[in-house]
Amino acid sequence: MQKILNYINGSYVAPKSNEWIDNYNPSNGEIYGQIPNSSAEDVEAAYQAAKAAFPSWSNTTLDERSRILSKIADLIAENIADLAYAESLDNGKPLSLATQIDIPRATSNFKFFSQAITQFSSEAHESIGHNAMNFTLRQSIGVVGCISPWNLPLYLFTWKIAPALATGNTVVAKPSEVTPMTAYLLGEICTKAGLPKGVLNIVHGLGHTTGQAITEHPNIKAISFTGGTATGAHIARTAAPMFKKLSLELGGKNPNIIFADCDYDEMLNVTVRSSFANQGQICLCGSRIFVERSIYDKFKTDFVARVKALKVGNPFDETTKIGALVSKPHLEKVKSYIDIAKEEGGTVLCGGNEVVVEGSENGYYLEPTVIEVQTDQCRVNQEEIFGPIVTMMPFDSEEEVLAMANGVRYGLSATLWTNNLNRTMNMAKKLEAGIVWVNTWLMRDLRTPFGGMKNSGVGREGGMEALRFFTEPKNICIKYK
Ligand SMILES: NC(=O)C1=CN([C@@H]2O[C@H](COP(=O)(O)OP(=O)(O)OC[C@H]3O[C@@H](n4cnc5c(N)ncnc54)[C@H](O)[C@@H]3O)[C@@H](O)[C@H]2O)C=CC1
Ligand SMILES: O=C(O)/C=C/C=C(\O)C(=O)O
């Protein structure tokens, strides 16, 4: 059984307590490895390594930082087969998805920020008439913490680490304890790429112990977190009185609004994907589908037929479209919403059952499920399920659908399907979401601000927003004669 190790000061090390946590393979429910159950002592060791590495790394030239980050990107790309296999084994996602989306995006994250840092600049303000000149420095913060979730493991881990390193910070990072494997492999890649020891430290362990030790560490000055809204609120309660910088990317309950004048076939293809990609375990999935009444019945028939055709199966089978959910507790949580929906008067149009996959009988498989709801106020329409379940209901007017779309406590993303330009502009401006996709979904340009409103988070990542988050602005005002 493979034991993975913490990556501290450029070396792989066991946790000081020598305590371990079992790691499960979601595709068959078996324990296939163990990970460190790290304590505050391990986090302190990681912090000390990061602190020692900071003076040199923050003074390393942009060209050199850029070169090393670019090399990490290249090595991720060279190791795509191993990394995709590890991601799929750890998470249950189809190998095809890990190969086509997750690992290439990890490469892009490093490549993007290796280039972005060479384009980053700060402002100058001349105080005309006062003989004074202001210029703003954007200085590295110091040691920063990056905490990431299990749904897009390497994709989101690197989305935080790459800008943190590019801006000259040193990092104490914790991947999800549910999917630690690709973060573990990244350590070796960083060493090979020539990242100096201590610049990136990866500590494995549970959220309420290892994660908590990072967020409450008095000298880790900024925390970038992606995960559930309840955890985000807890982290904010810990970090706010310590006046830490916080970037919180949290949950979503995103509307997918379909008007009759859309390009129907394109909409149908993308809606299947936006509903069930990664087993519905992406915070951006369009989990609430609202369809204009004139095409509701046709959409219902076509969509349900398409969803029924999605093959649920072992992640390593290349015909699989829906793999395993990430863990047994998560499967139980997601399934509980099917009962809640029925109790609330919803109709299960397809799916709703666990799937027993031949040869992988104890895996965590669930049929993709479509639930027709009577009201947007029911729990399945209001709470983040984060699994292969979508709701659908008809609407009659722009005003009505806008009220329903905005009528949740989340505000991450929204998708709009229409060819009416005026409607597009008017609705996009009124939708309470950090990201609005029109006639597409999850089209990502890494320069754009990424994040949510309301309970979906605080702050924005991506592009220059991330570089600004990971730096401290300092204004210098010079008076001259
Ligand atoms: N990106 C997203 O929007 C995600 C949303 N979720 C939602 O959250 C629900 C709960 O899933 P979990 O696995 O429990 O996610 P989580 O939000 O608890 O875990 C995300 C990361 O935070 C860490 N963490 C947990 N407690 C912490 C603490 N007190 N201090 C510091 N770090 C901590 C975890 O170890 C993990 O690395 C899911 O059912 C889903 O609805 C989960 C993962 C990603
Ligand atoms: O940056 C992206 O493209 C996607 C981000 C997705 C999440 O943050 C998530 O699902 O948690």
From TrEMBL:
Catalytic-site annotation from UniProt: E249
PROSITE patterns in UniProt: ALDEHYDE_DEHYDR_CYS, ALDEHYDE_DEHYDR_GLU
Keywords: NAD, Oxidoreductase
Signal peptide location: none
Gene3D superfamilies: Aldehyde Dehydrogenase, Chain A, domain 1, Aldehyde Dehydrogenase, Chain A, domain 2
Coiled-coil regions, chain positions: none
SUPFAM superfamilies: ALDH-like (SSF53720)
Keyword presence, Oxidoreductase: yes
Record family assignment: Belongs to the aldehyde dehydrogenase family.
Name of this protein: Aldehyde dehydrogenase
